[in-house]
Design brief:
SH3 type barrels, six-stranded mixed β-sheet, 20% helix, 36% strand
Length: 515
């Protein structure tokens, strides 16, 4: 090899080595000195930044770990030679003495959580009266908080600060956070109760959907419940709803409410996840015994008491047009969507990523992009549009159906992207649950078939909650398979979303023109 060439190659390798070492040094310095302390009996280490990633290890309370990187509210950490991801809201920095161990609770209902400490910033979530959130920091008249995986800002005028440190008298005493949110209602079919606040702890019992229990303590993502027979145990908080105990409202006694729409659910407890005691039709009236957190406790003809949401009734002596669900609609013009209200439901959101494609696409992001494009197209056609979520936030399935009803929607369209272990499966599918939803599903499926160059899997019946618990003409559309790598490439393109939105628009026109 000529000396000149040998010299040039040596110089290049030297420069490359310097660049690489500089890059490594920069990367290391970016995480150097940043440490956090675990504040949870057991904190899972995951393979990625989210609750849907697999658990690769655990950390115990008070463990100090080195931070490498951050993704949203998740921290990539290094501990004992291994790396992984942990939830930042269950940690604090060693220097965080002012807010460490503090929790705030909302003093008002529907307190806005904002993306920045300003009233002009976007609303990314809400807190209900008495709902707790972990305090991160203060900035002027604003507090930085995190709740249910959402990190944002609330105004200090509307919150109260409490301490969630374990009481010195022992764990049998209620924590101050539990005093504000002292009832836990199960929202899944079956939930294991464990001896300690960890998934590996011994299972001591099982509780079921709709059952409510007093709260003894709240510790991170775990809730300690008081159980029958003077027993207690721990459950994972994400499988239920925390609420304040019912408070009697004497001012509500003696009044009556009138049902606004046919088929309204009357429930056994004040929650949209509670069992349905009966269904009532428009015009039926009930005497009110008390009012609590947006619900009326009413008396039934057989002597039982039950609960009905305030947004589906009117005062018996007031016009029934007061709730938004009963607003008088403009007459629809044929060939347009003027006078029509469409509820669009972008599937998943927040810590619920949905499925993840072979190329790394998260379903929750794609459904929101599709919903935003569809919303614009329908508004241009004269329709009113209601979105069940307009940001990366978690919304329960039951609340999604209630939003459509509360806003007086005519139809409900839930948007999703599919997955299957068999990666060769492809195409779009339109699902319905109730027989009355089938004509709506057929119309939307026909509209999509005319615009999408994908395999049409047709309309199919499936038992989805957003369809089963929905009194509106409702469909759930799986717009294609992210598990199919070639189809994922198509689904993530702006052109596909435009064609999908056009197909749904055509299907809506077909459905309403046929009415």
């Amino acid at each position: 090899m000529p000396k000149l060439v040998r010299w040039m190659l040596t110089a290049c390798f030297a420069l490359l080595a310097v660049g690489m070492s500089g890059g490594l040094s920069m990367a290391a310095s970016d995480g150097a000195g940043k440490k956090v302390i675990v504040h949870s009996p057991t904190l899972n280490i995951r393979s990625g930044p989210g609750l849907t990633y697999s658990v690769t290890g655990t950390l115990t309370d008070k463990t100090e770990v080195q931070v490498i990187d951050r993704s949203g509210e998740w921290l990539e950490i290094s501990h004992e030679g291994k790396t992984g991801w942990i939830a930042s809201w269950l940690t604090s920095g060693p220097q965080d003495t002012e807010s460490n161990g503090k929790t705030v609770v909302s003093r008002v209902d529907s307190l806005n959580i904002r993306s920045a400490p300003s009233t002009s910033s976007a609303v990314i979530g809400k807190l209900r009266t008495g709902e707790p959130a972990k305090l991160l920091d203060y900035e002027g008249e604003w507090a930085s908080i995190i709740t249910n995986g959402t990190e944002g800002w609330v105004h200090t005028t509307y919150i109260s600060e409490i301490s969630t440190s374990a009481p010195s008298g022992g764990t049998s005493e209620k924590s101050e956070a539990a005093a504000a949110m002292d009832t836990y209602t199960v929202i899944v079919d079956k939930l294991n109760v464990r001896k300690k606040a960890t998934q590996t702890s011994k299972r001591i019992g099982t509780i079921r959907k709709g059952e409510s229990y007093p709260v003894e303590r709240i510790d991170g993502n775990w809730v300690k419940l008081s159980l029958p027979g003077k027993k207690s145990g721990w459950v994972y908080a994400f499988h239920g709803e925390l609420s304040a105990s019912p408070k009697q409202s004497p001012s509500g006694s003696g009044t009556a409410v009138s049902v606004v729409t046919n088929g309204t659910n009357i429930r056994t407890s004040p929650s949209t996840t509670a069992d349905v005691a009966m269904r009532a039709d428009a015009g039926e009236t009930f005497s009110v015994r008390s009012k609590q957190d947006g619900w009326y406790e009413i008396g039934l003809a057989d002597g039982r008491t039950a609960f009905i949401a305030e947004w589906v009734v009117s005062q018996a002596d007031e016009p029934a047009s007061k709730p938004s669900a009963a607003k008088k609609k403009k007459k629809r013009e044929k060939g347009t969507l003027k006078g029509i209200t469409v509820a669009i439901d972008p599937g998943h959101g927040g810590n619920d990523r949905g499925t993840t494609g072979t190329r790394g696409t998260d379903e929750k992001d794609l459904t929101l992009l599709t919903a935003e494009l569809l919303s614009g197209k329908l508004k241009d056609a004269g329709a009113q549009v209601v979105l069940t979520r307009d940001s990366d936030t978690y919304v329960s399935l039951q609340k999604r159906t209630e939003i459509g009803l509360h806003e007086g929607a005519d139809v409900f369209v839930s948007l999703h992207y599919d997955a299957n272990p068999d990666r060769s499966i492809s195409g779009f599918t339109t699902y319905y649950t109730q027989p009355g939803q089938q004509p709506f599903a057929a119309a939307l499926n026909d509209g999509l078939a005319g615009t999408l160059d994908l395999n049409n899997r047709g309309t199919q019946s499936a038992n989805y909650l957003v369809l089963r618990e929905n009194r509106l003409p409702a469909v759930l559309i799986e717009l294609g398979f992210l598990s199919n790598s070639s189809e994922e490439r198509v689904l993530t393109s702006p052109y596909f979303r435009e064609q999908a939105a056009q197909g749904i628009y055509k299907g809506l026109l077909q459905y309403f023109d046929g009415q």
